[in-house]
Amino acid sequence: MLDLTDRHCRAFFRLFSSNVRLYTEMVVVGSIIHGDRERFLGFDSCEHPVALQLGGRDPEKLSFCAQLAEQWGYDEVNLNIGCPSDRVKNAQFGACLMAEPQLVADCIDRMVGSVAIPITVKTRIGIDHCDSYEYLASFVNAVSNAGCRHFIVHARKAWLKGLSPKQNRNLPPLHYDRVYRLKKDFPSVQFTLNGGITGIDQIKTHLSKVDGVMAGREAYQNPWIIKEIDDYFFASNNFPGGKPGSSRSAPVHSRQDIVQAYLPYVEKQLSRGVRLGRMTRHMLGLFHAQSGAKRWRRYLSEHGVKKNAGIEVIHAALKLIDADANATNVNAVRADCRERQHSDAMNGRLYMGDTPAVCVAGNG
Ligand SMILES: Cc1cc2nc3c(=O)[nH]c(=O)nc-3n(C[C@H](O)[C@H](O)[C@H](O)COP(=O)(O)O)c2cc1C
Questions:
Q1: 0.85 exceeded by pTM
Q2: H or E segment and range at residue 213
Q3: SS (H, E, C) 116-148
Q4: What pLDDT digit, counting tens, does each position of 269-305 carry?
Q5: 337 catalytic, yes or no?
Q6: Which helix (H) or strand (E) holds 88?
Q7: Residues flanking ligand 1, CB < 6 Å
Q8: Which residue of 54, 186, 201, 306 has the fewest C-beta atoms within 10 A of its own C-beta?
Q9: CA–CA gap between residue 23 and residue 43 (Å, rounded)
Q10: Is the pLDDT of residue 332 over 60?
Q11: Residue located nearest, by CA, to atom 22 of ligand 1
Q12: Do 70 and 117 contact (CB within 8 A), yes or no?
């Protein structure tokens, strides 16, 4: 996701699961060809399996960038046929390419012919008035015949005229049934469903109909879900049909474990001159829905971005979480004691105080 799943984000996400596949932000072919290659292609070996997502419409340029991706060690190249932004639309790639199936097929044909790694496509279920199932199926037919064996389908159409990218991620309704139907009609092609994934039960349902799911916003805002997915589907081998096994490395028990595991990476990047804030910004959702989440977010947002901020900022933020957790525990015990005091008083017992240390029952 643009401006979100950069290399620091992916290195962080990898700590939650060794198994899930991570995708880069969309990188425009021109940036790779004319720009700083290390900036646009560089990644850490810990990120594997990792796919490079390309944006473009020129078969030659896409093929050249796919070759570079392979040389740099990416596991997959994915072509973006789903981005509806004005900038991308004006350059005539992204979602608007759904209207040009033959050109997409040419791009795929060139890319597949030039590398050994898989070439995949991320698309929508339609754009503007090209939104029937028949149109989608003819698009998939043309592009799969050109050699694309795996489609990631965001199960909502894009309105290129009139809706902003944000609205295009929320307003057009999700039609999961279209993606299920694609799988039925093209059984030898892999389909990964995307859009609105927020929990394990939903994923279980989708996996009984398609080959995979992709989570975007939920994974970013609540990365702990990646660990839950890893635990449920990979570590416990709960794939329908008993597919992929687990290749789990160090077991992760808590969010604090994740932070500890990320620290060596952060230190390495700091020593290379990367600002702390470029990493801490991806950690804000770590304690999502947990006690202390707000203080964690606020502290990291405020202090992580300061010039010369170092690893101590993360340690200090963690202390806030621990303090919050302790306070929550003490409060829970206090509340429990008060409740028991009340009910025991009713039963003729006496408590000496309301903290755990003096929470002594009478001789009952
Ligand atoms: C800020 C932001 C940036 C995004 N950038 C990309 C991108 O670079 N490439 C892409 O294929 N999708 C991108 N997306 C779309 C997501 O990959 C995904 O298709 C969409 O959010 C729906 O899935 P979700 O409901 O799980 O988030 C982006 C989404 C957001 C919120």
A1: yes
A2: strand 212-214
A3: CCCEEEEEECCECCECCHHHHHHHHHHHHHCCC
A4: 999 999 999 999 999 999 999 999 999 999 999 999 9
A5: no
A6: helix 86-90
A7: 1-2, 4, 25-26, 53, 80, 82-83, 122, 154, 169, 194-197, 215-218
A8: 201
A9: 11
A10: no
A11: 195
A12: yes
